[in-house]
Amino acid sequence: MPSGCAKVGVFACTVALLSVSEAAVAQEKDRYSLFDPTPDRLLRDMTTDRPDTTESPFTVDAGRIQVETTIVGFSRSDADPAGAVTDSYELAVTNVRVGLTQSVEVDVVWQPYGVVRTRQRLPPGTIRDDGIGGLDLRGKVNLWGNDTFDKQGSALALLPYVSLPTDRHNGIGPEHVEGGLIVPLALRLSEKLGLGVNGGMHWAKDDGGYRAEYLASASLAVEWTGKLGTYYEVAARFNVDDPRGGEAVMLGTGMTYALAENLQFDAGVNVGVTSAADRINPFVGISRRF
Fold first, then answer.
1. DSSP the chain
2. What confidence tens digit (pLDDT) does each residue in 138-156 have?
3. In this structure, what CATH number is given to the domain that contains residue 231?
4. pTM
5. Which of 53, 69, 99, 288 is deepest in the core (most CB within 10 A)?
């Protein structure tokens, strides 16, 4: 211990040394970029934007790629006013996250295949659609907390995105260009508890033109062991153009399990609280960092 520590106290000196160490690491990491990847020894702990719907404020380290995939997902809607119920199946919906700098990443989200089956009451029958989904282009800018979350206890980011149609009439992807902005916030409640909060706006297009939908969610994460974690979430979308109601509110829960340092498995289920939300939505997924 340096001799100056005797004057200011061991605790204060230790905090100062840790601050200097963090600053040195951050300064060293700043030199890395998309074409000069961050080495393994400087990587942050792997964090994902799945399985909950609440986005995280943490970005992928510069020059690294993280692939997050829904292996299979299913959702069943509540009945609409005419009594029709829709079942949706999604396969291999994948978010490819690429670290551009230590605080900026770009994401590409695509659904290679999906099936939507609607069972009508009047007239009786079933309508089936299938095909590829839309293409989402996203950017995430971390404003603070990427490498200092444990010390500061918070992290904040901005996440703008645009959704592009790939097949306007297949019943799977969007028919119009849409977009929005999400503001992800993370709070460290304790060594084992964390809270994620999102607020945002989505510009959706219908026959009357573009209108604003408002997004809000909160997800409580519990770290049970170094590998196993669970989450408990409430999420809502307001001003939704749906004949069953204008608010879609759902509750969700699930688990994550670290198979390796850069490999994570997850599973979860969402349950609709209002009629505009899907009645049930189970899924399983996997994430891998390269």
1. --TTHHHH-HHHHHHHHHHHHHHHHHHHHTT-BTTBPPPGGGPPPP--S-SSSSPPSPPPPTT-EEEEEEEEEEEEPPP-TT--EEEEEEEEEEEEEEESSSSEEEEEEE-SEEEEEEEETTTTEEEEEEE---EEEEEEEEEE-TTTHHHHSEEEEEEEEEEE-SSTTSSSS-SS-EEEEEEEEEEE-SSSEEEEEEEEEEEEEETTEEEEEEEEEEEEEEE-SSSEEEEEEEEEEES---TT-SEEEEEEEEEEEEEETTEEEEEEEEEESSTTS-SEEEEEEEEEE-
2. 999 999 999 999 999 999 9
3. 2.40.160.40
4. 0.88
5. 99
